[in-house]
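Quick start: what a row looks like.
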Amino acid sequence: MYAIVEINGQQFKAETGKKLFVHHMQNAEAGATVEFEKVLLVDKDGNITVGAPTVEGAKVVCEVVSGLVKGDKVLVFHKKRRKGYRKLNGHRQQFTELTIKEVVA
């Protein structure tokens, strides 16, 4: 059984026991339980229910493993040839790590 759920503007496939890295949630503390009720699709052993826009009564229950996880560093390099212009900029995205406890449908 799995569900497609929308978390912070992004869609994720949620299965029991899986880990998700979602965009940083401000007030998520390690060990806290979070529920997401914006479930767009539920698949129960081949029986698919599609919401219009969401599935009634369905929710995904998650536990926060870590409130802040930094992603890989992305380097952005700008250069203009023959002008002596070079600029290097780096960025690390912040994520929240979740473990899915159950999918209620």
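That is the whole record. The chain has no helices and eight strands. Residues 18 and 100 are 6 Å apart (CA to CA).
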